[in-house]
Amino acid sequence: xxxxxxxxxxxxxxxxxxxxxxxxxxxxxxxxxxxxxxxxxxxxxxxxxxxxxxxxxxxxxxxxxxxxxxxxxxxxxxxxxxxxxxxxxxxxxxxxxxxxxxxxxxxxxxxxxxxxxxxxxxxxxxxxxxxxxxxxxxxxxxxxxxxxxxxxxxxxxxxxxxxxxxxxxxxxxxxxxxxxxxxxxxxxxxxxxxxxxxxxxxxxxxxxxxxxxxxxxxxxxxxxxxxxxxxxxxxxxxxxxxxxxxxxxxx
Amino acid sequence: xxxxxxxxxxxxxxxxxxxxxxxxxxxxxxxxxxxxxxxxxxxxxxxxxxxxxxxxxxxxxxxxxxxxxxxxxxxxxxxxxxxxxxxxxxxxxxxxxxxxxxxxxxxxxxxxxxxxxxxxxxxxxxxxxxxxxxxxxxxxxxxxxxxxxxxxxxxxxxxxxxxxxxxxxxxxxxxxxxxxxxxxxxxxxxxxxxxxxxxxxxxxxxxxxxxxxxxxxxxxxxxxxxxxxxxxxxxxxxxxxxxxxxxxxxxxxxxxxxxxxxxxxxxxxxxxxxxxxxxxxxxxxxxxxxxxxxxxxxxxxxxxxxxxxxxxxxxxxxxxxxxxxxxxxxxxxxxxxxxxxxxxxxxxxxxxxxxxxxxxxxxxxxxxxxxxxxxxxxxxxxxxxxxxxxxxxxxxxxxxxxxxxxxxxxxxxxxxxxxxxxxxxxxxxxxxxxxxxxxxxxxxxxxxxxxxxxxxxxxxxxxxxxxxxxxxxxxxxxxxxxxxxxxxxxxxxxxxxxxxxxxxxxxxxxxxxxxxxxxxxxxxxxxxxxxxxxxxxxxxxxxxxxxxxxxxxxxxxxxxxxxxxxxxxxxxxxxxxxxxxxxxxxxxxxxxxxxxxxxxxxxxxxxxxxxxxxxxxxxxxxxxxxxxxxxxxxxxxxxxxxxxxxxxxxxxxxxxxxxxxxxxxxxxxxxxxxxxxxxxxxxxxxxxxxxxxxxxxxxxxxxxxxxxxxxxxxxxxxxxxxxxxxxxxxxxxxxxxxxxxxxxxxxxxxxxxxxxxxxxxxxxxxxxxxxxxxxxxxxxxxxxxxxxxxxxxxxxxxxxxxxxxxxxxxxxxxxxxxxxxxxxxxxxxxxxxxxxxxxxxxxxxxxxxxxxxxxxxxxxxxxxxxxxxxxxxxxxxxxxxxxxxxxxxxxxxxxxxxxxxxxxxxxxxxxxxxxxxxxxxxxxxxxxxxxxxxxxxxxxxxxxxxxxxxxx
Lengths: 251, 952
Hints:
Strand content of chain A: 15-25%
Number of helices of chain B: 25
Helix content of chain B: 10-25%
Oligomer: heterodimer
Distance between the termini of chain A: 81 Å
Number of helices of chain A: 7
Low-confidence stretches of chain B: none
CATH topology of the domain at 75-148 and 436-453 and 464-569 in chain B: Rossmann fold
Mean pLDDT of chain A: 93
CATH architecture of the domain at 75-148 and 436-453 and 464-569 in chain B: 3-Layer(aba) Sandwich
Largest sheet of chain B: 7 strands, mixed
Helix content of chain A: 10-25%
Distance between the termini of chain B: 22 Å
CATH class of the domain at 75-148 and 436-453 and 464-569 in chain B: Alpha Beta
Structural class of chain A: alpha+beta
Radius of gyration of chain A: 25 Å
């Protein structure tokens, strides 16, 4: 069984905006592409050109609807490791391969000591761990630990690949433990929430809820009734229109 | 103890920039290379298109590049078409074969070559190649993609939705998105939507299906397919009723004051009243008389009836517009049931648009000078923006619907103003652009170039490509009375027409990147017959020779006689030219290149190199030097640098002149490609702030645009709300002028060539009984496979390997259908068996599916039991390329009557449960395709293992 650090210096994580995600899968494939050649290399794929193509992914997007009929909404929900503060996936690990870093709170798997027993994936209620069938070890989001401190990348690119790629800007990366960080401010402003808080794992990643739909909002006023220069002379609508159009308009 | 992990592992031996080619977006990318392999692909932060981001397919580029379905060597067919019996041949033999076939055609009748280049991004080269060869029969895939959008825009305001303009994302206050539009400018749209979300700007999506962008819209308007034009006309009705129209803008920038002659039954009817010099006339209140409408100092009247010098009565365009839209025909209450949009919602949205335009007016303190030299100290904007693409385009009323949307934008004063919809240079252009299609009667001659470009913009019947009997001169019937403004050709009709020898047979069909035997054709079973039909007398194929170039083993490969294998996008030079489809930004024109970042490991050649080689072997003008040798012996990169279309104007605009000192015009620069590569493989010219808005009437912009060759004149570009070219076709249909349509075309041309936009029901729905085919059926591509086929990609197919037919849940329950049931989808030409999935966010009269997921067994390097082949399906089998017979037996193509755009979203179907037939496979089935020497497909991939710092 593996111990958790008493506390972490930082709580690095992702803030994902469900109001903005269009479900384009950019974060999914950019993650796969970076990580299959990075710290977790390789993320293998089975039956890639056959009847049942499946492989190891560290991030997936699920698209579904909530509610019925006119009250329904479409949701695109990106799912990856939440880097919990008190994750059972670490404490159940019999070899210490799963661990939470004291430095930044990232939950990692050491592929050299992972025996592929899958206890961690049973322990994770978020389904965030994926077993690599080729290599026989467990894989999970590393928050691109091989990017975020990497001096071989320009400073602005020292962010997870999914955040780097996201076209709508729905993904944000930072220290959620620092109340003055941009991500913490965003969480406060948009009422970001924890996934399944009652499980008690204290996820670091936060989700920003979809804003309420605004059908008639904006309280559009009738511009006509408020604008005195519009013609309200008697006659047909056409008469009024032409009377209004009959102003001095210069080219 | 925590393990020690490397904080700064090596990421690449080298990073090379180039341009993505997995869709039409053409983002700048940075390709990480390690030991010669592609390690990673990311977006280029400096690039004007994607500014660093990259979509789901672009980020899966590695698997596109390493797919086992890549072709490996030239192939010659030795068995029957479709059999898969090929032998590999050398490039030398392949080129000799192609040169022989093409040479015979060129020296006898060049129009017997049909060159159609699909998803070609090098049309500035391929179109010119066709032109030098001498055939008018050239186009890419725009005829089933975009031509309604391109033509409607270019004939109305000199720009277009598509990717030729975009909303002013940073300033707009309201965004109205029509139909599925995810397939062009996809990353710019996504980043734009992200900006709107950040600013809390309202996004309203008008779309029968709530997916993708619609899912995050503030309001989803689940309209019935093909009725968007009716909805927009009702908004216009409301604008007129509430007088929320920008009259100043109309007078300044549009032809709304121009006088239109009212003389029904005469050849003058509906034309503009003009002065002796051809200028349009207006009634000027200042002069209290008629005046030249092109003058700056006029105060024109927008209504009233005036006598013009010819003695006719004439009224301003604005009055005709008002009469059409202010009357009750388009009142919200009348259109609500047809569109499925409640009248109150239409009225509310009209108010919201007006509020955003007029109450949230934007004022920029930027000085600018208008076309007449008058200085303005401010730029005033109406911050309403709109976008539309496929969902509007692929209907038989798409041209007019798109014109209606542009009319709405213009009435609100929101084209190229701050906060509105902005042109991307080189747009705006003249309305329409001054380019006529080449190949008129008698001009196509052996061994002779065409007398112009094959594609252009007719301004009246005199520009049509027809013979003395009014019959088509092009194989696809573009620019004939069938489709007079077919500005992108009709690729979807080529196989049908060639097989039926209607209007004539051809000798060689040459295609590139176009899966015409499968997902790029309507009526696939019919198309397979056309490809394999034989002449009974000779035993020869009716389409005698088919040359095809593709990088992958697509369904089309099996039907070609000679296959010229292309490279992947990472192995080639390319040029995204301002002469073709630019990648510009509203703040300035941009162009770009692809450079080879890895070398091919197969016996393949870039298609453009092959075209240059063929041109030289055929001795075509422009392709050979004075000594008869190849003019561009260095291939496409040589051409990109050294070719001049006009003196000083070449494929790339950046770093021209011997030392790279000129933009736009200048001598070829031998170091031009090096300059592009140094700059990240693109060039962008940044306009001055004073040039960035009102480009259609902005002196600084127009002067500059002329100096770099974008436009021929600095005259203001006056929006044509009323289109005189359309009226000229209508007059011809009424029997006026020297060129009139044959009798059977007259009614149709007269009806649809309305100089003012209008709405009519899509054709298929109009001719079929609604009780029999009650449902609309439409498609879209998943965002991670937009504008690409994708199933050869091991990662993307893990996301989508099967498509289902999506139905409205309540409607399905009424029909006693449940999730995952198998159903028959029946149209008037056939039926397809598919599995259904129920959802809330779809119009109840509509079913839809992901397009082109269904594959034929054996194609794309997939196993025969791949879900794409066993459970996936195409709606293409159900879409007829021809409309049902009309009086006289003539069958028009299933296309927009003006542009010839394929109307594949008009499809009507019925849905029935596939009782007792739940074998779990889709139908119909076609024989599996076979490929000689097929590369071994791995059962497992561990791509990336080679990049580990320590081996496993």
